[in-house]
Amino acid sequence: MLEFSRTYTSKGITLNAYLDLDLLRTFVMIAETGALSRAADRVGRTQAAISMQVKRLEETVNQPLLLRTGRGVLLTAHGDRLLAHAQKILRAHDEAIAEMSGRGLSGHIRLGCPDDYAAVFLPPLLRDFAARHPQVLVEVYCAPTPRLLERLDDHLLDIAIISLPQNAASDAVIRYEPLVWVGARGSDAPQMTPLQLALSNPDTLDHQAAITSLEGIGRPFRLAYASQSLTGLIAVVRSGQAIAVLTQTAVPADLHVLPADSGLPVLPNVAIALKTDQRQPSSLVTALREHIRSALPYL
Q1: Domains and their CATH numbers in the chain
Q2: In the 8-state DSSP scheme, what is residue 194?
């Protein structure tokens, strides 16, 4: 068992504290997933075993680290402090193993990702990949799926996380994400006639789902704002002038997912998939692809 240890002396009493790497890795996983059950799935243990690991770690540092809520777990102030240390310790450990064993990859890889996935999925994906392969430089390009596919065809990207229709028959599909109607809290935009929409490019799935579903129920609408930028769309929705369609994972905390009784039609899910350059993928691309496929379902 690998451990980091430190000796503390306080009031004449010497205490030895050991930070077990396995416990730290589980703790970081809990922090990233926000739930013991999802962390258990990712590390291949039962939820009871995960709870015991948390208890052991709390006993080691003699501080409460997690707050249980009805929606998962939150870090305490002590948990936030330990998380920063745990990430540094694990990164240093993994870098040392990769360097000394000679198994680490090196080189440059170009990753594409839609904006609505980037903020949520990329930080843990890139951090974990960098810990395993510290000599790899990952260049990230964010754009809607149609633009990513164009860049893949032009060999300007090596791999991309993309959105597909929910009925897409592809073994590249990793998970499904619901599309939702989004508005500003307290705004009367959902009741406007015609409905004011803020949508991305016409060839994107969110744009197509919004138009098709509204036409299906005969609801009058007007495309009031259009932007390829997710930041631009969110700014318009925050102003209360229009509503938008976003993937549920991309909805900021200050905006409101419009409920079923708002009179808006049900939207489909989108499939999240991976696509690589048409040429034979390199060992770098293969490593990143397998890393994303194993981790993304649990984020």
Answers
A1: 3-101 (1.10.10.10), 106-174+272-298 (3.40.190.10), 176-269 (3.40.190.10)
A2: S
